[in-house]
Amino acid sequence: MIKVSALQKTFGAGPGSFTAVSGVSFTAEPGSFVTLLGPSGCGKTTTLRLLAGLERPTGGSIHIDGECMVSAEARSFVPTHRRPIGMVFQSYAIWPHMTVAGNVGFPLRVERPRVPRAEITRRVAEALDIVGLGNLGNRMSTELSGGQQQRVALARALVRRPKVLLLDEPLSNLDAELRERMRDEIREVQQRLGITTVFVTHDQAEALALSDQVIVMEAGSIVETGLPQEIYNFPRRTFTAKFLGVSNNFTGTVSETDGGTATISTAHGPLTARTAAPLETGSEVRVAMRPDGFSIHRRDPGADAWRGTVRFATYHGDSWLYHVDIGDQSIKIRVIKEKIGLARGDAIYLVPEPGAAIITQDTGPGDVDGSNRTHPLERKRT
Fold first, then answer.
1. Global pTM?
2. pLDDT-based confidence at residue 175 (cuts at 50, 70, 90)
3. Residue 64, exposed/middle/buried by CB under 10 A (0-12, 13-18, 19+)?
4. Buried b or exposed e, range 35-53, using 16+ CB within 10 angstroms
C-alpha cells in the first residue's frame, strides 16, 4: 500500500519560488492501479518523482507498505535505489549500446549486495517473458520498434520485483493504434502480477480505461478522486467536467426536487439532474451536459424541446458532432450512427436526456482523499 500525506514540493526560495505540489494526500491500495490525471504543469509528474525519490519534498511524507520512504518533518529520506519501486519514464531511457537483455538486467548488475550472474540471467528471462519479448534478449536495443522499446522499459522496471510500479506517461510517444494496444498490455501485466501501480497521464481515455482509482490534479493540488465511472459520469468539480469533455455548461435555478433528482430551469428550457446532496428550491446551480446527453429531432417533439440552429458539423466515422446555436450560446451535440448529416443553418430541436445533467461546483481544489464522495453510482468498495 502507498500512503502519501500532505506532500509539498516548492522549487526555489523567496519571491521567485514555485510550488509544484501543494498538500497532496492519497492512498493506493495493494494491487490497485491509480492514475494521476491532469493537464501539463498540474504537478502529477513531480508527485511521481517524489514517490520515486528523484525529488525531495519540502513537506509531507510517503510510506510504502508501512515503511517511511521520506518525511520532511523527520528529515528522513530513503534514496531511489533502496525504494521497492520500478519506474518507466516517458522517454523509456533505453541505452542504445546495450542489448535488450543488457538493458533489462542493468538494475540487477548495479544492485548491492551483488546479485549472482546466474540469478540475473534467470530474472531477465522471466521479465522478458512477462512482456512478451522472451526471444529478443540478444537483439540490440536500436533494432527495436517503439512498442518493443516500451516493453523493454517495462521489463527493466519489473526485473527487481518491486512492490510499486511507477509509470510516467509511457505511451505518449506511440502512434494511436500502438498506444491502445500497449495500454491494454500494461493493464494485463499489472493485473496478472498484482503490483500496485501509479500512472501519470494527461489522456482521460487512458485514465478511464486503466484505472481502479483516478486522481484529478490542477495547479499542484488534488481536485477530486474517485472510481473511473464516478469521475466520468458524475464529476463534482467544473474543472473535472471540462477536462473530461463535458463541454456544455449552463447556469440555472432549482425549480423542483424529488428524492435524488432535481429539475433545473435554464434560459433554454428545463433539465433533469441527479443529485448526490440536497438542493434548495430557488438556489442557483451550475450544470454540465455531455454532447451525447441530448436527443436530436428535425421536428418539434414537444414543449420541453430546445430550438437550435446548426452552425457546422464534423463527421467522426461512428458519429456526427454538431455545433449548435441555442439563443446566444453555442453547444456541442453528438449523434451516433446517423447516416445523413445535418447542414449549416438547419433548424433542429434538442431534448435533454433525463438525468444526464451534471451539477458541478466551481470551488477550488478539494476532496483530497475522496472520502466524502457520494454519487448515484455509489457501490460497495471491496
1. 0.84
2. confident
3. buried
4. bbbbeeebbbbbbbbbbbb
